[in-house]
Design brief:
It is built from five helices and 28 strands. By secondary structure, it is mostly beta strands. One of its GO terms (biological process) is proteolysis.
Length: 438
C-alpha cells in the first residue's frame, strides 16, 4: 500500500502553533528507551523563527492543516487515502522533529514524527532533485552499515508503491496530496539514539524529493501502525510492539520537553489509565479508534445523529494539531459550545470562520470537555487544548470541521495525556498526566 504524508510544510497542522522536536537527550533502559521532544517554537528548535508571531503561526497552521486534508480525496496507488487526516507532516506541520543518527559513522538527521504514516526517509546523495537543506545531506557511500534492498526481498513489499530498478533495487515513490514527493531506494541502516544503536532499520534513501519542506527538515519518521513504520521496527527489536508519548500543554514554557517512549517504556499503567480498542480497517497505516462523542459540561454530543457511532470513526494523529471532525458532528458540537459560553463570538477576517472569543482569561471561555471512546472511556480535555490563543486576549476553538466521515484526534487534544499504542494487545491507552514532569 502506498503511503502518503503531508509535505513537511504543508501537511500537518491546522491551527498549529506547536511542533515538537526530539533532541539528542535519550534515556535507554532494558527493553526500551525514551527521547525528549522539544517544542517547535523553542529557541533550541531548528524550526524556531524569531520573526513569527503567535498569530502568524496560528494562520500558517490552519493553511497547512487544510492542505493536508485535501489528501483525503486522493486514492491513487501512490497516495495514502487517509494521509490527509494525518495532519502532521511538514516543517511547520503539527508534527514532531526527532533527532536521530543513521549510518556508521553516525550522521545526525532531523525527521518529522508522524503517527499517521509509516515510512522513515531522509534525503540522500547523490541527489537527482532535492529541496534545500541546511544540514549536510546523508551520503550512503560513506557508511559501512548501509545496504540496499532488492526488489525480490520481502521487506521491499512492505511498502505498496515500489518498483524494480534495472539494478534490481527496490525503488519507492511516496507522495502527498499537497504535491510533495519523495522517491528513492528502500534500504537498511543502523539507527542510533545517544548510546543505543539498532541495526537493519528499513528506511527510504530519497534521491528525488520535492514539496514545501523546511530547510531544517531532513525527512520524516513514520510512527504508524504498519510493520514498516519506525515505531513498529524499533519496538519489535525491543521485544514489544508498543510506544507512548506525553505532550506538554501548548502554553508551557518552550524549554520544557515532551517525551516519547519505545519498547517496555511505552507501557502505560497505573491509577487513572483507561483503554479503548484499536479498530482494524483496510488502511493499516493509522491507529483507528471509535469516538462515541464529546461532552460539553454535562451535555454529551454524540458523534452520529443517526444512531451508534461507526467503528473506527477517528484516528489518532500526533501530527495534526486541531481535532478534525465530520461537518455534521462539528456543527452540533460548536453549537453546544456557543450555548455554554456567555460571550459574543469574536469576528476577525484573519481567523476566517474559526470560532473565537475575546477575553482576558481562559476561565471565562472554555467549558469543561471530554472525549468519550468505545468501552466507556472518558478522556478529559484540558482547557488549553480545546481553546488556543493565537494572540493576547483572543481564544479560538481548537477543533475544525472536515469533509468525509472519518475524523482526526489531533495533538491539541492529546496534551497532558500519556497516550500509549500497544499493537500486541490492540489497545490505545490514555492516562491524564502532567507531561511537564515526565
Amino acid at each position: 500500500m502506498a503511503i502518503v504524508f503531508d509535505s513537511p510544510s504543508k501537511c500537518c497542522a491546522l491551527i498549529l502553533f506547536f511542533i515538537y522536536l526530539a533532541n539528542s537527550s535519550i534515556e535507554a533502559t532494558n527493553g526500551g528507551f525514551s527521547i525528549d521532544l522539544i517544542h517547535r517554537d523553542s529557541p533550541n528548535s531548528p524550526l524556531y523563527n524569531p520573526n513569527e508571531t503567535p498569530l502568524d503561526r496560528f494562520n500558517n497552521g490552519i493553511r497547512r492543516a487544510f492542505s493536508r486534508l485535501n489528501r483525503l480525496s486522493m486514492t491513487s496507488s501512490s497516495v495514502h487515502p487517509n494521509a490527509a487526516a494525518n495532519t502532521s507532516v511538514s516543517a511547520d506541520n503539527g508534527q514532531y522533529l526527532m533527532k536521530l543518527s543513521i549510518g556508521t559513522p553516525p550522521v545526525d538527521i532531523y525527521g518529522i514524527v508522524d503517527t499517521g504514516s509509516d515510512l522513515l526517509w531522509t534525503q540522500c546523495q547523490p541527489c537527482e532533485q532535492c529541496y534545500k537543506q541546511t544540514n549536510p545531506i546523508y551520503n550512503p557511500a560513506a557508511s559501512s552499515s548501509y545496504s540496499t534492498l532488492s526488489c525480490q526481498s520481502a521487506q521491499c513489499h512492505l511498502l505498496g508503491s515500489v518498483s524494480c530498478s534495472p539494478q534490481q533495487l527496490c525503488d519507492y515513490t511516496y507522495g502527498y496530496g499537497s504535491g510533495a514527493l519523495t522517491k528513492g531506494v528502500l534500504s537498511t541502516e543502523t539507527v542510533t539514539f545517544g548510546s543505543t544503536s539498532i541495526k537493519n532499520i528499513i528506511f527510504g534513501c530519497g534521491h528525488n524529493n520535492t514539496g514545501g519542506f523546511n530547510p531544517n527538515e531532513m525527512g520524516l519518521v513514520g510512527l504508524g501502525a504498519a510493520d514498516l513504520s519506525f515505531a513498529s521496527q524499533v519496538s519489535s527489536q525491543l521485544g514489544s510492539k508498543k510506544f507512548a508519548y506525553c505532550l506538554v500543554p501548548f502554553h508551557t514554557n518552550p524549554s520544557i520537553t515532551s517525551k516519547i517512549y519505545f519498547g517496555d517504556k511505552g507501557e502505560v499503567s497505573g491509577a487513572g489509565v483507561v483503554y479503548t480498542p484499536m479498530v482494524s480497517k483496510d488502511d493499516k497505516s493509522v491507529f483507528f479508534v471509535t469516538l462515541e462523542g464529546i461532552s460539553v459540561g454535562d451535555k454529551l454530543i454524540p458523534f452520529s445523529s443517526l444512531g451508534a457511532a461507526p467503528k473506527g470513526n477517528v484516528f489518532i494523529d500526533s501530527g495534526v494539531p486541531p481535532m478534525l471532525l465530520p461537518k455534521d458532528f462539528y456543527n452540533r458540537l460548536e453549537q453546544e459550545v456557543k450555548s455554554q459560553i456567555k460571550l459574543t463570538p469574536y469576528q476577525d477576517p484573519t481567523m476566517g470562520t474559526q470560532l473565537c472569543y475575546q477575553s482576558q482569561s481562559m476561565r471565562d471561555i472554555a467549558p469543561a470537555m471530554s472525549a468519550h471512546f468505545d468501552g466507556g472511556v472518558e478522556v478529559p480535555l484540558i482547557a488549553t487544548s480545546t481553546f488556543i490563543s493565537p494572540e493576547d486576549g483572543v481564544f479560538c476553538f481548537g477543533m475544525n470541521p472536515m469533509d468525509g466521515d472519518v475524523g482526526v484526534f489531533g495533538n491539541f487534544a492529546q496534551s497532558n495525556i500519556l497516550i500509549g499504542y500497544d499493537q500486541d494487545k490492540q489497545i490505545v491507552s490514555f492516562k491524564p498526566t502532567d507531561c511537564t514532569q515526565q
